[in-house]
Specification:
The chain is mainly alpha-helical. The chain has helices at about 25-30, 55-65, 65-75, 90-100, 110-125, 145-150, 155-175, 180-185, 190-220, 230-240, 245-270, 305-310, 315-330, 345-355, 360-370, 370-380, 390-405, 410-415, 420-430, 440-460, 465-470, 480-485, 495-505, 510-525, and strands spanning about 80, 125-130, 135-140, 230, 275, 310-315. Helix content is about 55%, strand content about 5%.
């Protein structure tokens, strides 16, 4: 299967006037998004995704037109069909193959498309070639054809994934080769070959980074909102985290869009992505050599205008493929539900380590496999402890109890006098109207420290949520008295919580008393109390 050549406009993207992304405000065209993580930072945890069952993925793979043509060709040659010494069909069979694939009166383009499918079928060993005893070259169906036609998930997904790897490689290769260089024989030169290899490697790296970014974007997207404007995808790859794009970056974004567009089109042919290409009219020249003004840049950019710059959506098959590639590169690429077979303590430990990325979805998957009351008891058992992770475990325990709802009440009632869970339990029950006494003063203060500690650990001490908690502390008009109680709270993070209050509270008097209390709490910790 040969990759398609690119028809690059004579005018470079960065030179077109009045049409390109650089002519628009980034917030209008791209949503002013930039990458949350450095694409080169392989230590970043990849967010988990929800994949359909293998049988559903296999059905989607068989429904991809290119795959269905490949399978049809393999069945068509049964039990065998003559080919030349290179494994190619003769002229008459090529036309017949195109007709079998649906072309009533095949033209040259129909035959070319049929032979692209034939080449892929041979590359995937769905069609095998050999020589008879009489010396005739023949093609026969591959050994996996029956299993693939029967829809066996392992066989179908194995075939489709192998095809995806080929298409990904060929997409980058096609993008790296200038057709004029090929026609001019420039590839015979050693330097020319090295230049093409470098360009291919660069195109492959760009495509891989784009797919990785799409994977993460899709994982976090709301259902139905997985489609990404091509400009947003390019901006995520170009604009460093926390920076606003300058004019040079806008030009780079435009150039990257033009590079990605045809490669994504190749992947769309195999069902990895749904892709709306860049409108070619955007790069057409007018009669005077100037770019045609096809979009009015003086008015607000509409959704239709933005779509003309291209869009892309990673399909479930695409998520499946990208996840396999990420795993092969050593990334941890979990699936939602990976923790469903663990008990409550193990679940909460895992969430405490990596939870901000997937806690809600993972909790729902875990709860779906359990009776509500049993699940509540298991979560509460996992929430006990005074180790450094324990505040975060209790935080996720509360989230889980909230998902269960009223059916968790009986389990929560059982721990109202627990030294670590009592404050949490009474707070949870009273919020739902239960006739339960409020926690004793020492338990209530312990709960305040524990709640703030959880948010500090989850947010690394940053963000408005911690600031809001600090502002809402019931300090009253006597902060010295309040913090005089807090510094004695036997919680593993009392010192850190008081230091955070001292740094973040907007009332200078309150902040000063919190810092004083932190010093006393640190001294108490040093004494081993």
């Amino acid at each position: 299967m040969a990759g398609r050549s690119r028809n690059t406009p004579d005018q470079q993207p960065s030179e077109a006037e009045g049409l390109l992304p650089a002519d628009y405000d980034l917030a209008d065209l791209y949503g002013a998004q930039s990458a949350d993580e450095d694409p080169d930072d392989t230590a970043v945890l990849v967010p988990p995704v929800v994949l359909p069952p293998d049988a559903e993925l296999a059905a989607a793979a068989l429904a991809v037109p290119l795959i269905s043509r490949v399978v049809a060709l393999a069945r068509w040659i049964a039990p065998h069909r003559e080919v030349d010494e290179h494994g190619d069909l003769g002229e008459a069979d090529r036309v017949q193959a195109a007709r079998m694939l649906g072309a009533e009166d095949p033209d040259e383009e129909d035959v070319v498309e049929a032979m692209r499918a034939w080449a892929l079928a041979c590359d995937l060993d769905l069609v095998e070639t050999g020589t008879t005893e009489e010396g005739t070259h023949v093609a026969i169906p591959g050994p996996d054809l029956d299993a693939i036609e029967a829809g066996e998930p392992a066989a179908v997904l194995g075939l489709w994934f192998e095809a995806a790897e080929l298409v990904r490689e060929l997409a980058a290769e096609a993008e790296s080769v200038d057709p004029e260089v090929v026609e001019g024989g420039g590839l015979d030169d050693t330097d020319g070959l090295a230049e093409v290899e470098d360009a291919r490697d660069q195109a492959a790296e760009i495509l891989d980074e784009a797919l990785h970014t799409l994977y993460e974007t899709t994982a976090f997207a709301e259902p139905g909102a997985e489609t990404v404007p091509l400009g947003v995808l390019a901006a995520l790859l170009v604009v460093p985290d926390g920076q606003e794009p300058d004019e040079e970056m806008l030009g780079e974004i435009t150039d990257l869009m033009v590079v990605l567009d045809p490669m994504l089109g190749d992947l769309a042919e195999l069902g990895l992505v749904e892709h709306r290409p860049i409108d070619p009219d955007l790069f057409e020249e007018g009669g005077d050599g100037e770019a045609a003004e096809v979009v009015d840049t003086d008015r607000p950019l509409t959704e239709e205008d933005a779509a003309r710059f291209g869009t892309v959506r990673l399909t479930p098959l695409g998520q499946y493929a990208v996840r396999e590639w990420l795993l092969a590169e050593g990334y941890d690429a979990p699936l939602v539900g990976d923790l469903a077979d663990r008990d409550g303590p193990a679940l909460l430990r895992a969430l405490a380590e990596d939870g901000p990325l997937f806690a809600e979805a993972e909790l729902k998957a875990w709860l779906a496999a359990r009776a509500p009351l049993d699940a509540a008891r298991d979560l509460l058992a996992g929430a006990r402890g005074r180790d450094p992770q324990s505040p975060v475990r209790r935080y996720y325990c509360v989230l889980g109890l909230g998902e269960i709802g009223e059916e968790a009440a009986a389990a929560v009632l059982e721990v109202v006098d627990d030294p670590e869970l009592g404050g949490l339990a009474r707070e949870w029950l009273r919020a739902r109207g239960a006739d339960v006494a409020a926690a004793e003063r020492d338990v209530a203060l312990w709960r305040v420290v524990d709640s703030m500690a959880a948010v500090m650990l989850l947010s690394a001490g940053e963000g408005g949520r911690l600031q809001a908690l600090v502002a809402d502390l019931p300090v009253t008009d006597n902060p010295a008295s309040y913090f005089g109680e807090v510094w004695r709270v036997p919680h593993p993070m009392t010192v850190e919580v008081l230091e955070a209050v001292g740094e973040l509270h907007l009332d200078r008097r309150v902040a000063k008393e919190a810092r004083r209390a932190a010093v006393k709490a640190r001294s108490l910790r040093a004494q081993g109390a």
